[in-house]
Amino acid sequence: MPKVLLALCRAISWVQLALLLTMLGVMASLVFTRYLFSYSPPWSEELTRFAMIWLVMLGGGVLSLFQDHITLTVFSDNFSPRMKILRSFVVRIILIATSAIIVVTGIKFANGMAAVYAWGLQIHMGLPAYSVVAGFALTLVFNLILLAEDIGNLFGIKTNLIPRQDQVMDGSFRTQDDL
After folding, report:
1. φ and ψ at 124, to 5 degrees?
2. Residues 6+ apart with CB under 8 A from 128
3. What percent of the chain has pLDDT over 70?
4. What is the Cα–Cα distance from 112 to 109, expressed in whole angstroms?
5. Cα 73–139–56 angle (5° rounding)?
6. Is the pLDDT of residue 106 over 80?
7. pLDDT number for residue 176
8. Which of 46, 50, 112, 116 could form a disulfide with 125 if both were Cys (CB 3.0 to 4.6 A apart)?
9. Within its chain, how far is the Cα of 6 from the centroid?
10. Which residue has better confidence, 2 or 144?
11. What is the CA radius of gyration of the chain?
């Protein structure tokens, strides 16, 4: 399982790099054409906006695998190990339920947006809307895996389902990683 998740996270990182480079190239050409020719292609800002949405949603999914979203840990740092597992379990259940609702309603919304086209790019607006579905589908799947790991930890079973974060990304928001 860790190898599959590692491969998926690395593939997502490559997609994010492609999106970032696309944004950089489009915005550089936008600045160039705007100041040199007094012309702005109508699709350029839409493309960068849609790329940013995909970039954020995919990144959010990956961050959920490593439990690395920015969180407030003032109270939970003082919990006992068993209480931390219980807290994690409750948070996972909430994240799984919320993600499932967003995925289901997001698919309906994105399908409804297929009839609406972006003015500049002339692509249907379902394409950026599906980024929310993709990001929360990743969050849902990753939290199901983390829930299985939490259940194993609750019963003293050591599972190794998650790859190391440093194999995918070079930084962390977690305070315990700074120690």
Report:
1. -75, 145
2. 49, 50, 53, 54
3. 92
4. 5
5. 85
6. yes
7. 54
8. 116
9. 15
10. 144
11. 20
Q: CA 157, 158, 163, 164 torsion: positive or negative? A: positive
Spell out the domain ranges in the chain: 2-177
The two structure tokens encoding residue 113: 């947006």
Across the range 5-18, mean pLDDT stands at: 91
Reduce the DSSP state of residue 25 to 3 states and report it.
helix
Beta-bridge partners for 117: 124
- Rounded to whole angstroms, the maximal C-alpha distance in the chain is 67
> Please, what is the end-to-end C-alpha distance for the chain in angstroms?
28
- Compute the distance between CA of residue 77 and CA of residue 176 in angstroms, rounded to an integer: 10
**Torsion (CA) 63, 64, 70, 71 in degrees, nearest 10:** -160
Q: Where are the alpha helices (DSSP H) in 66-170?
A: 81-112, 126-154
Torsion of CA 117, 118, 121, 124, to 10 degrees: -40
Report which of 73, 76, 74, 56 is spatially closest to residue 64, judged by C-alpha positions: 56
State the Cα–Cα distance between residues 27 and 153, nearest whole angstrom: 47
pLDDT for residue 12: 93
- Judge whether residue 159 has pLDDT over 80: no
The length of the chain, given as a count of residues = 179
Contacts of residue 137, defined as CB under 8 A and 6 or more positions apart, other chains included, come to 61, 99, 103
